# Entry
Amino acid sequence: MKSDKRMAGRTASSAGFPKRTVGALLLLIVAPVALAVILFQADGFDPVPIPDGFQRETVAVPARNDRLLLGSEKLGEGLLPGPEDLAYDAEAGVVYTGCKDGWVKRVSIGESPAKVENWVYVGGRPLGVAIGPDGQLVVAEPYKGLLRVTRERKVELLTNEANGLPFRLTDEVDIAKNGVIYFTDASYKYSLEEDVLDVFGGRPHGRLLSFDPSTNQTRVLVRDLYFANGVQVSPTQDFVIFCDPCKRRCRKYHIQGEKNGAVEDFVDNLPGLPDNIHYDGEGHYWIALVAGRTLSVYIAMKYPVVRKLFISLSRYVSLPEFTDCGVIGIDMDGKPFALYKDHSLSLVTSGLKIGNYLYYGSVTKSYISRLDLTKHAAK
# Structure
């Protein structure tokens, strides 16, 4: 035994690791772990497993472009702080987007360079935007609720609660041809600044709702959703698709016919967490992936203990953003046909095809990105 110890000592010495160095290395390893344990125990955040789990499988996509940033150009750089959602007015040739400075901005995409206009100030942090059949814009503002911008650019409150429960995070919106507005309250518990607590908490605080301007009635259509997000009325007007990011899927709620009120799956096992969804008028939906299905995301969403540690550490240090994001194209039957993403891309919140271009927005960029699909199509 003694000879073994002397041999170990000689081995360590010959390897160039004096006792002081070994002690310092051990300290560098143990100290962060001990600190993490202390923070973990002191933090009150208590996540739980997400029912049905965070599946490991990913749906097959026949065509891909994994270098989305390579061919993308920037529109309105420096003038569009966090363009979260996109709504296209084909007659005017402009895109509306809500920015974190409280402005809904209008971008003339047909001009070169693109012209950016501060269109109307709604305050707060406008997220979802949609143009109704009457040409008026509806805005989902997380702090105030569902807003309408009149033709005179006057901002009106439509609704801010349902069944006596106020909205805390009014998120996305779309409008049917009959004028009924469909939207999501991502969380009735957490505000926008606390959104990661809702996503990582593993508890359902989200709702899909409708508002009928003709009756001023707000209805809860689906409750107990895990951070309910993007909304899109089908072109046939018989169902509404809504994004269910924590389970990497989109579902549809029937609003007409024999299945009225029923909920069915639309697309599952997406290669990332879905945010907004848009129909392009050409038989395709485009879904933004706000976080890619990376190993770190998979582990975090699958194991509550990892999510707790993440939140505990995030209170004291800045942690890296989720990456490998992009936009996925889905056909009318819910089958993916093309994926556009980039490993370096983070927090993509909206995607929309207009003509030969794919436009996408992000809460962390100061511009809208555009990709020419005739030159950089997925293969």
In short: Helices lie at 2-14, 19-42, 68-71, 195-201, 295-302, 304-314. DSSP finds six helices and 27 strands in the chain. Residues 1-17 have pLDDT under 50 and may be disordered.
